TrEMBL record:
Residues 5-97 form the Chorismate mutase domain. Its EC number is 5.4.99.5. It comes from Roseibium aggregatum. Residues 275-290 have a biased composition (Acidic residues). One of its GO terms (biological process) is chorismate metabolic process. It is an enzyme of class 5 (isomerase). One of its GO terms (molecular function) is chorismate mutase activity. SMART domains: CM_2. Signal peptide: none annotated. InterPro entries: Chorismate_II_sf, CM_dom_sf, CM_II_prokaryot. This is chorismate mutase. Residues 268-290 are annotated as: Disordered. It comes from the Bacteria.
Length: 290
């Protein structure tokens, strides 16, 4: 019986070891599904509806996974397995659909949705981002997936509100070189109230004139913007530690305060999976000039 170099074990022994590990993994998966069912049952008993998507908890668990990951197994593979597992467990208890932005490339949207929400969740293509906002607002607990496009075809974020759909996550969450499912997008969902402790806050801002040219210098990222004869609408991202007054002052320092400024959600800061797990991703694109 031949032995493999440096392993000290024969090929048959290694295959037996793999089989044993597979059995332990399968047992752990079944135990996790059972525990998830218990969590959902306890939530229903307390009057809470089952939730497919818990972005704050998901972000914490993903950070822990990135911090402990090592070896040759691609981090994106582990991320996808984990996302598929958690969504498969929770979708058994929650009847939730994910509405897709029809203005983006359908294949890329499907890849992104399946990567993060698995194959157990119903996907519903929409006509455009505004259609997704409306579908999430009208639903009991559905999610929306909207592609992030620098110059939007319409200011769809005007439909976001605390009583309806809000921005709850930004994808991809783990930033990796040459990663699969890398379409930049936002996840929309309802929330009982505005999440005040999000790493990044998202604002609907409107100017009747040009968009200030120095927003990035003030720590403001323009996620998307829409220009019309009436002025410029922009979807802004900025540190969640700042108040609305701070954000308005930052816009003024960048060139002009907006006539309209309202918070429409927030999300956990993406993780740089190529380096230090504690590093967060900062946009490097130049701000669109007015």
């Amino acid at each position: 019986m031949s032995h493999l170099p440096d392993s000290g074990l024969s090929l048959d022994d290694l295959r037996t070891r793999v089989d044993e590990i597979d059995a332990r993994i399968h047992t752990a998966l079944m135990e996790r599904a059972q525990a998830e069912a218990g969590i959902q049952a306890a939530g229903r008993a307390a009057g809470a509806a089952p939730a497919l998507f818990q972005p704050e908890r998901d972000a914490d668990l993903m950070r822990q996974m990135v911090e402990r990951h090592q070896g040759d197994l691609p981090l994106a593979t582990v991320e996808h397995i984990w996302r598929d597992l958690i969504c498969a467990c929770t979708s058994l208890q929650a009847d939730t659909a994910v509405h897709l932005d029809g203005s983006a490339d359908l294949i890329e949207m499907l890849d992104l949705a399946r990567f993060y929400f698995g194959f157990s969740v119903e996907l519903v293509p929409g006509s455009d981002a505004a259609d997704v906002v409306g579908a999430v607002t009208a639903s009991a607990g559905d999610l929306g997936l909207v592609a992030l496009i620098d110059r939007a075809e319409l200011p769809w974020w005007r439909g976001l509100s605390e009583s309806g759909a809000l921005v709850r996550a930004r994808l991809p969450f783990v930033i990796l070189d040459e990663r699969p499912a890398d379409l930049p997008a936002l996840v929309l969902a309802k929330a009982d109230s505005m999440i005040d402790n999000a790493d990044i806050a998202v604002y609907d801002a409107r100017w009747s004139d040009l968009l200030p040219g120095n927003l990035m210098d003030e720590g403001i990222e323009v996620l998307s913007f829409f220009r019309s004869a009436a002025g410029v609408d922009a979807l802004l991202a900025i540190s969640g530690e700042l108040t609305e007054e701070d954000v308005r002052a930052a816009c003024l320092a960048a060139g002009a305060a907006p006539e309209v400024l309202r918070r429409v959600g927030g999300y956990a800061a993406p993780i740089d999976g190529n380096g230090d797990p504690d590093d967060t991703f900062a946009a490097e694109d130049e701000e669109p000039q007015g």
